[in-house]
Design brief:
Oligomer: single chain
Order of helices and strands: EEHHHHHHHEHEEHEE
Shape: elongated
Structural class: alpha+beta
Number of helices: 9
Distance between the termini: 38 Å
Helix content: 55-70%
Length: about 325
Amino acid sequence: MQMDKGRFSGRFDTKGRAAMGADTKQLAERYFEIFQEYLREQGESSLSSGYEFARRAMVDGCSVLEMAEFHHEALRRILGGNGPAEKVLVQAVGLFAACLSPFEMSHRGAQEGTRALRRLNEILEGELKRIAHALHDEAGQLLASVHIAVAEVAGGLPPEFRARFDEVERLLKQIEMELRSLSHELRPTVLDNLGLVPALEMLAERVAKRSGLVVAVSGNMHARLPPTVETALYRIVQEALNNAVKHAHAKSVTIDLQHTPLKVACVVRDDGVGFAKRRPRDVEGLGLIGIRERLNALGGLLRVVSKPQHGTTLLVDIPLGE
């Protein structure tokens, strides 16, 4: 059975050992270190290290078959090279790779879908930014011209007719405020200029003013994140706040951000009505589906914790580059 491994740098030679490129060797060495640590301690710490290693490797494009090669090479080194165990490993590796081949093809398809989804999100955000700027700048300039024209016309009328133009001025100012608000909803300029935390604080202020919800933002964000990650987290929090107002009937929401070199974590917790753990699939709605799709495009994870009458918590993890 022949398998096309595409771009994979790892290959099994005729003796069953993994023949690896330079980058793949570094990954294999790191896996071997984690493997040794687990054999010594067999604790949660080494399991967590393995999980983080695999997640980073997956985001960087590592394949299922390459992970199998890392594990096989680690076993071979631990067992010492020769003897019956080595022969069994050599015989088993071909079958194991063949069994993993369908998983690898599925994984490759998922990676291609993820790249397409990420690109689509970038295009949509670019269009939203263009529309938001048009509403804020171009429509704002037009309204300013209308204000001037109305003032000139009103200035040439008798005082008894100017009151009607005052009402027109009031309506124009209301339209201007609505357009400015819509512009910020579509794409807040503060997100591009100042970063995620100021944008979330402004979002929290607007939601609180509009709905009466008490929203608190906290975290240890000391540096800017990649634009795609900032945008995704902003949209996720935006959707979570909408859900808290429309569906959860919450009175307060807390948003907490934690940034480490390897990942960014976001926790959104409300005190709303919550829901049962087992609920119909259609209850999830487009909001959580959209959140999951944004996270999938970035290799992120979402956990939802909720109980009836005990609120809902969204826990989001997004891996970061070095």
